[in-house]
Amino acid sequence: ADADGIRLVDLDEDGVDRAFRADVLKGLSQGQKAIPARWFYDERGSQLFEDITQVEEYYPTRAETAILRSQGEAFARLIGPGRAVVEFGSGSSVKTPLLLSAIDPAAYVPLDISGDFLRAAAADLAARFPQVPVYPVEADFTKPVALPGAVGNLPKLGFFPGSTIGNMVPRTAVDLLRNMRATLGDGSLLLIGMDLIKDRAVLEAAYDDAAGVTAAFNLNLLTRINRELGGTIPVDAFRHEARWVDLYARIEMHLVAARDVSFEVAGRPFAMTAGETIHTENSHKFDARSSNMMLLAGHWTPVERWTDEAERFSLVLARA
Ligand code: AVI
Predict the structure, then answer these.
(1) Which of 114, 194, 201, 263 has its CA 20 to 30 A from that of 289?
(2) DSSP states of 105-174 as a string?
């Protein structure tokens, strides 16, 4: 529940997530079918994403971790001690400790819409950094969030690793950056991960690994729809596709119907012809110019930018 006691997940009398049903029914009714990527992350989807971060072809997690590992001194110099670190999304067990141990923060405030992930991450960090008070907040961080009173007077550092910003279209990404600015306030800093434009083959392999983990992640969305929304989608009639769309500098993930199919979701009939797709994710990639432009449009001024040695991934520090 949020501060007003309103449930963040709105279930109907049958226990169905209303927002999920609405997004799926609307998305399957469009010309180009599309379902927002946030619905990937049920329990199985979250586990599959963890597995993706370990596959050979998926470089972003390793590259970003390498930057965090190697730039501790620069973070200490440019960020300094005494800030409240506000992490957008539950902290990862590897990245967050690297940042916290580099800068000696006064508090750690993880924000997440999922109370379960949030509590697990908060307990983990509290155990590893007993001197740093932890104030978890269950909230939708795409909107401005009221931070706990205990960190009200501390300067803030927002932390948004993983290039999750890339999963949003620019319009939504800019809204999010502005809302982060509102959440964090004057005098704040933001450390944000942004994946870089590179060879098409490297990008497409990162989103279509040989072991099929990303394919399973994408296809799991259909399994989730069948389970939670009473769907009859023939999952084995779909295949995973990852394509680089140069015009928008993004990887798109699609589920391609391998043959003509018809099915029901929540009692409604749908049909797709062979080759038709459901667009399930965008993952935008950046260069120095486009990441600066995005930050400036979101009311942040870039201060410093780091990449890993192979220049696959960037971490950018910006000030309010
Ligand atoms: C969470 N997000 C940054 C991942 C990405 O790389 O866009 C999600 C992902 N989708 C397929 N593989 C990973």
Answers:
(1) 201
(2) -SEEEEEES-HHHHHHHHHHHHHH-TTS-B--EES-TTS--PPPGGGTTS-EEEEE-TTGGGGS-HHHHH
| Coil vs helix vs strand at 287 | coil
Question: Quick one: 112 exposed, middle or buried, by C-beta within 10 A (0-12, 13-18, 19+)?
Answer: buried
ipTM, 2 dp: 0.99
Residues contacting 140, CB < 8 A, separation 6+: 2, 8, 113
Ligand 1, atom 2, lies closest to the CA of 164
216: which DSSP letter?
Answer: H
**Residue 140, number of CB atoms within 10 A of its CB:** 12
User: Are 176 and 168 within 8 A, CB to CB?
Assistant: yes
Query: How many beta carbons lie within 10 A of that of residue 295, not counting itself?
Result: 25
From the alpha carbon of 162, which atom of ligand 1 is closest? Answer: 3
In tens, the pLDDT along 238-264 reads 999 999 999 999 999 999 999 999 999
Judge whether 206 and 197 are in contact, CB under 8 Å.
no
Q: Dump pLDDT digits (tens) for 193-216.
A: 999 999 999 999 999 999 999 999
- Cα–Cα distance measured from residue 76 to residue 78, given in angstroms and rounded to the nearest whole number: 6
Residue pair 221/45 in contact (Cβ under 8 Å)? The answer is: yes
Structure tokens at 192: 């944000």
**Ligand 1 pocket, mutate which of 48, 52, 56, 244 (most atoms under 8 A from CB):** 52
CA 77 to ligand 1 center in whole angstroms: 31
Q: How many CB atoms lie within 10 A of CB 118?
A: 20
Spatial separation of the C-alpha atoms in residues 203 and 52, rounded to whole Å: 14
